[in-house]
Amino acid sequence: MAFRARRAPSPGASHTPFSAPTRHVPRDHLDADERRAAALHDPKGVLSSRKHHTSGPGPLGLADAEWKLLIGITVLAALVRTFRISSPTSVVFDEVHFGKFASRYIKTQYFVDVHPPLAKLLITLAGFIFGYDGHFDFKEIGKAYDNTVPYVAMRMLPAIMGIALVPLSYMTMRALECRATTALVASLFITFENGLITQSRHILLDSPLLFFTGLTIFFWVTFCNEDSKRPFTDEWWAWLTLTGLALGAVSSCKWVGFFTVATVGLSTIKQLWILLGDLRVTPRMWAKHFMARAICLIAVPILFYMFMFWIHFTILQNSGEGDGFMSSEFQHSLGGKHMQDTFADVAYGSQVTLRHWNTQGGYLHSHDHSYPTGSKQQQITLYPHRDQNNLWRIKHVVKDGEPDLDWKTQPLDYLVHGSVIRLEHVPTDKHLHSHDVRPPISEVDFQNEVSAYGYKGFRGDGNDNWVVEIEHGDSSDSQSGRRVRTLRTYFRLRHQLQGCYLFSHKVKLPDWAFEQQEVTCNKNAIRANSIWFIETNTNELLPASADKVNYKVPGFLSKFLELQSVMWTTNAGLTDRHTFDSRPSSWPRLLRGINFWMREHKQIYLIGNPFIWWLSTASILVYAAVRGFLILRAKRGYQDFNNTMVNKYDQLCGFLVMGWFLHYFPFFLMDRQLFLHHYFPALYFAILLFCSVLDLLTTMLRPRIRLQIAAVLLVIAILNFYYYSPLAYGLQWTRSSCNRAKLLKTWDFACQDFPEEYSHYASGQPTPVKPAGQVTIGGPGEGRPPMVVDDVVKAHKEAESPAAHVVEPGHDVFAAKEEPKVQSSGVVAQQQQQQQEAPVEKKVIQAAKDVVNEQKVIQAAKDVVNEQKKEGEKDADEPAPTDHKGVDPPVQGPHVPAAPAPAAAAPKEDHEE
After folding, report:
1. CATH of region 340-550
2. Which pTM does this prediction carry?
């Protein structure tokens, strides 16, 4: 691509969102050459090329005809996005989570999610307006909605945002100075992109995320256009402020929105850098530009983001299933978790509850159940709820030969650093005990079992002795660093004989301990995991007027920062593989989709429009090739980048490629579960990039030819949309059509579940044809299609389960499973719970083996019957056997009656079942 070299435009003449904004410099201050260049570039004196940007007067520079066109494509997008939006009438994919979160908001019950609250709040608002009371549990994929759930209204919220993205894409392309034809192609590509359609029709967060991504880019580009004319006008401030608000909104939907912040941020840094080198810009003027951007693009988004969490905390005022992830102070700020004031001073004889500081696993706990291994003494665990079994009495150590000390007759003796104590479990009268025995789970040499040992009246032994080591106190309590104070002193308990520390970590015990958290005595303890504090304290010897304390009430900032930390930790912990997850390297090639829902021989499967998807990917490669070619030419002395058109498209495409890169490559750094829909923000930039490349390549063509090219592209895109629409809408489809649609072998939508002909749907029995010689497991009941043994074995070997059976893709995502017997705390607890539940594939494989074995047993039984019938058909005069030698042995398996024998013949023979 060779262009004639031209003199570069004057500084600031470029007014794209990726270069330095034009400074408002009077023409009298320009030299003759600069005035000629400015006159040629912008004869009206406003440095913004309107050749393609506008066709006439009107809002945002669009002519009336374009506004009519914009309304038309918006209506078309509405028809495409809302077609049969009420179907299916059951829970789809991650509606399991986000519908449940809406229920929690309405019932004001606290929960924890890995995403910020804005999109969830909008979905909740839609449900609340239409009368949702929050009592539907969204328990599993496929659960039918009842008439109390306005699920259509809740689905409409993401759909409306998906619709709004279409005109936004058009206006963004026009703001980038692309032709109306190109902008139309971009908007219709967004309209008919099957993946975007599927994602925007359900109660999911990606549609709001994409909408605010598109809104941010549109506001930013429009601001740059205003900045190119004259900075610091009312319009200039308005667009800059709107950009900041949109940045806050996109970040408040998902943390992926911070990639949009990075896109605008890098563009801003480049602007300020170029301004810094512009000698016509005074330091004072540069500082003003810097402060304006810092306020609007940093402070405003941060305040907006924090405001969304303020709303979140204001609504969720009551205790809920997410309490266990938060600190004790946070938990006790919630309704239903408040605690009465408790005595501050801790002394011998005090009845206390001890909490673990680091893991939020709960209280030091014991119950009348023994370990199945080791000492087989009474279990010690962490339990996250208040319970009588959390109560412990602090007692003196009894020396050999000395009488027991009755704490009631002794003067108050406060606990200090170095105090040696025994802890007696109040409900069972046993002592907290440790010895040189390995624990049942953490079976390593430096870990000792901790148990409850003894009985009422038992003096105990040296293995019951623990030394108090104060770690630190609270700055608000000057005494808490010298002696143990309730809620203010953090301490460790060292075993006096073994030298190990009372310890707990995020490891769950099995069912025999009710999946509670393990407690051990660790000789190499991580300090944070061996720190404890006393939460409640009563002592009969303390007067009622003694000092009392309670949890500090955390302020908003403290709760906000704690929740960000919990979200980060939880998000990083979602590392388990998922049946339909995928890695970023596969996304631009569209190698795999996601099974959303499958019932009644229909399927919703998220897959992109391959024509649009692969064109957008190709445009990135084209840009890289052309850019590399121009760089090589520049090395040879060519001045292509001084050409106005080359410079314009280079800046424009470079900005979009930067947006694509920043929304795509960070996922390579993540080890968590990832899905195809994580690519959608990058896909948006890629589609805009393709249309920008198209705008460049058709620059020299006549308008009619450009229209013809656009028409061909749109027809192919619409045909692809139509061909894959059964997967987007969950429509009727045939097996042959499905198989033809599989352009790649890695596309794993369930063609075998569709009938051979559409007429099977009308008959009400669209049962797929089963190949001969295969054993069917299950059936079409409950929406679970037939599955053959060959498919099961294949699923087991390939580690990618086929979509022939209903896979519940949302079930192993965060918070999707049913709550355990006791409330889990942290990601590790959730992962262990998932590991304890047998995967669907293993259960199906075992069922297949059982069926095959049963078939073999039945066949063996039939062989026995046939053999006995042959014996009965022998000559009637033949004498009957008088012993068991000629009788077949008993058959193991289903009961088979014995063949008839002559009267008074062989003795009776019992066949075992």
Report:
1. 2.80.10.50
2. 0.78
